[in-house]
Structure formats: C-alpha cells, structure tokens
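Reminder to self: tokens first, then the designed residues, so the page reads top to bottom the way the pipeline ran.
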C-alpha cells in the first residue's frame, strides 16, 4: 500500500511546479517565480518598443486678412486664388473688399479698414510719405494699362517728334494723378513741357466724361475705360504703348499691420504670386474672370480678346524680375527707390504732401528678399525629407503615407502654392519619418531579444523535461 502511494506520487508531474522528494514547498515554487520573472521582462520590453507619437498641438483658426482692391486688372490674381479656394494653402483666409479708388483706400488705411491692398502708385507713395502705408511688393507696371486716345482724323500725338504735336491741345488728365505724372515725365524725357489740362469741376477731373463731352482733343485713360471709348470717334495711339516708363502698381500693407504681422503679409505675397502664375498658365480663363469682375463693379462688358492683351502686358510674370525692382545694382538705387524720389518730388510739387520721408521707412525690400528665399528653402526641405523617407524605407517601415504627403508637397511647391506652409509640413513629415525609422529599429532589436529569450525558455524547459524523463525512466 505504501509502495503504491509512492509510485503514484512519482507519476504526478507539474510543468510549472515540479515536486521533488526531500524538497521544501518553498523550494518547489521556484520554477513558477522564474516564469513570472521572464513574463515581467517580456512586457517591459514590449512597453519600451511601443510606438511613441509626438504631441499634436490643436489647430487654431486660420487668420483672416482684409484685402482692399479696386476695379482694375491688378485685382485679378487675388480673385483667381480666391475662386480656387487656395488661400488656405498659404495659411490664411482672405476677405476681399472692393473700393472705388486709391483715395478711399488711403482713407481706410488710417482707420484700419483693411490690412493689405493693391494700390495705385500715387496713393501708395503718398501713404508711405504720410506714414500710413508700407510698400511690400509690385503687382505690375501700370504703364501697360494706360492708353492715349485722340480724335479720329487728327494727327497722332505719338510718336513724339516735335512739340507742335502737343502745342495747343487740351488733354483730359486728372491732376494730380498717376496718369498726369506719367505723361509729364514721358514728355519731359523728350524735352517737351506738359500740355495744357482742361479746366474741370471742383470735384475733380473725370477724363472719360471730358472726352465723351468733347471738351478735350486727347486723353490718357486706364483700361478698360479706353476700350469703352474706342470706336466712338476716338483712336488709340499705338506708338504710345511702346514708349513706356516704369510706373509700379504697388502691393501694400498698413504700416501697423506690416510691423506686427510680417509673416501674414509674406503669406499674402505668396498668394499674389500664385495668382500671377495662374494667369500666365491660362490667360483666356483669366480674361473670362476679369470680364465678370468688370461687369460686377463697372457695369461694363469688355470683349475677352481685348482683356487678354491687357493681361499679358502689365504683369511681371518672372519672379526674379519682380525682385530686381527692389534691388540696388552697381552702386545705383533700385528702380523702386528711384520711383520713390521722382514720385515724391511730384507730390511735393502738386502740394499733395508737405513733407517727404526716407523711402527706406516704407519700402520693405526685406520682405521681397524673404519671398525669394522661400522657394529655395522649400526645395531644400523637400530633398531632406525625401532622404529621410528613403532611410526609413530601408529598415522596412511602412512609408506609403509618407510618400503620398511628400508628393503632394512637391506639387504644391511646383505650383507656388504656399511654400511657407509646405516648409512646415515637410518639417513635420521629416520628423515623423525619422521617428518611424527609430521605432522600427527599436522594434527589430526587441524582436531579436524576444527570440533570444524564447530560445532560452525553450532550452530551459526542454532540458528540464529530459531530466524529468530520465529520472522517471530510472
């Protein structure tokens, strides 16, 4: 009976808690604690190999800017970007405010009625000298938007050959105005004094009405007003358009906004450049939008064929050409600094302003330099991020989502859609790719450790089983 009980006990075997004759119960539980120890190590390694995600800051509301425009072709880039809902690509929202002209815009600048604007050069430089305006860029050359009209059957004033072509002629030009400044400078370059200007009502000159009423023999008009009068007894002096001088339509910001919101101004300048690229890519489509804009604001319908010509002649489609306007070369003042001196002298002569300011106080050339550097910086970030993704791909991490975001960023850079925003996206993408690579390498290392511990456990219990089998056989 006693021998049978001993034999039965020997047949009893527990993998986790083997019972040995002559051992205490405390000693018999040691294999169980060993297993618990291995399990604790396993979960510790798993917790260390878990994916670590960076904290994501809550996305705030996109800042809104109020942009002031007038019924002119220079508003077109803003309208096109707005129609495509692309302002968000630049990290801003835009509220478009249409003003009747530069005088209304200048009045609104002192009252913070708008933040940035596309402005007539006369009012832009006037506002700069008065301390209300900062000039941050150039939209295009207003000279390309001016047309000289004269009565059909009369001798064309241009090309300029002698003073006789201007002597005694009455020109419909508002004084003071950008048109009057332009005509004065152009004639002075040919050694001719400015022609007599028609006497108008105290409210100011309306050249289009003066010409329509026959109170002048010639007039200098902006588009699309010149197109409205063509065919109504008036002819365009084609040679006049070939004798252009520099007269910039300005991109401006209120002085306070430019001082405190430079980054937002830079984003808006990016957006305006994007609009110019859209125009360059499809002038016909841009002309359709401009025609619609003129219908809404001027109640005039201008043929698209004429608008295409206007569009192609006034914008600086080359970014480097726009940048050159703010840069001094060979010891000479930049074109914008030269214009500031000339136009300021005109404003003083016309008693529009009483005191002149240094052009450096309102010409923010550094913003133009920053805008120029953005594309190069975005390209550099694109290459760094590509390299980071390729390194992550080599270690076997999933990178499909990374490549998709990278390709979207590349297209956005090529289209000029918010390089400043793309730089931020690429920085985050590069950091995520590097984190993913580090986490994958850590996980691979853990798998190797895990396999090693598994092998140890297998050897331990395999050896234990063999020992138990031998003892049982004996």
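Designed residues (474 positions):
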């Amino acid at each position: 009976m006693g021998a049978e009980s001993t034999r039965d006990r020997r047949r009893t075997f527990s993998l986790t808690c083997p019972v040995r004759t002559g051992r205490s119960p405390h000693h018999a539980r040691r294999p169980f604690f060993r297993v618990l120890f291995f399990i604790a190590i396993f979960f510790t390694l798993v917790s260390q190999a878990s994916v670590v995600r960076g904290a994501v800051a809550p996305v705030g509301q996109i800042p809104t800017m109020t942009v002031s425009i007038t019924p002119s072709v220079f508003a077109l880039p803003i309208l096109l970007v707005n129609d495509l809902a692309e302002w968000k690509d630049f990290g801003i929202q835009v509220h478009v405010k249409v003003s009747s002209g530069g005088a209304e815009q200048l009045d609104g600048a002192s009252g913070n009625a708008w933040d940035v604007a596309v402005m007539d050069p006369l009012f832009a430089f006037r506002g700069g000298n008065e301390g209300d305006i900062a000039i941050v860029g150039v939209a295009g050359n207003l000279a390309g938007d001016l047309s000289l009209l004269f009565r059909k059957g009369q001798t064309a004033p241009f090309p300029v050959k002698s003073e006789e072509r201007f002597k005694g002629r009455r020109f419909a030009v508002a004084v003071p105005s950008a048109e009057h400044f332009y005509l004065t400078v152009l004639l002075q370059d040919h050694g001719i004094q400015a022609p007599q200007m028609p006497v108008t009502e105290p409210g100011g000159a309306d050249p289009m009405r003066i010409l329509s009423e026959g109170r002048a023999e010639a007039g200098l008009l902006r588009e699309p007003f010149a197109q409205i009068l063509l065919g109504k007894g008036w002819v365009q002096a084609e040679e006049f358009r070939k004798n252009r001088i520099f007269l910039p339509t300005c991109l401006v910001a209120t002085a306070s906004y430019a001082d405190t919101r430079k980054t937002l101004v830079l984003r808006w300048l990016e957006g305006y450049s994007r609009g110019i690229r859209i125009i360059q890519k499809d002038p016909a489509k841009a002309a359709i939008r401009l025609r619609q804009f003129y219908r809404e604001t001027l109640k005039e319908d201008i043929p698209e064929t004429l608008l295409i010509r206007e569009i192609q002649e006034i914008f600086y489609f080359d970014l480097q050409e726009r940048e050159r306007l703010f840069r001094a070369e060979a010891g000479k003042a930049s074109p914008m600094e030269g214009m500031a001196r000339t136009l300021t002298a005109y404003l003083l002569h016309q008693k529009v302003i009483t005191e002149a300011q240094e052009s450096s106080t309102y010409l923010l050339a550094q913003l133009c330099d920053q805008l120029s550097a953005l594309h190069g910086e975005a390209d550099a970030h694109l290459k760094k991020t590509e390299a980071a993704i390729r390194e992550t791909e080599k270690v076997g991490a999933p990178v499909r989502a990374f490549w998709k975001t990278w390709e979207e960023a590349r297209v956005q850079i090529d289209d000029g859609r918010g390089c400043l925003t793309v730089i931020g996206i690429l920085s985050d993408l590069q950091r995520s790719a590097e984190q993913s690579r580090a986490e994958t390498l850590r996980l691979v290392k853990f798998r190797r450790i895990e396999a090693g511990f598994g092998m140890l456990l297998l050897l331990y219990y395999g050896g234990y089983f063999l020992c138990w089998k031998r003892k049982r056989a004996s």
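The first strand starts at residue 64 and ends at 69.
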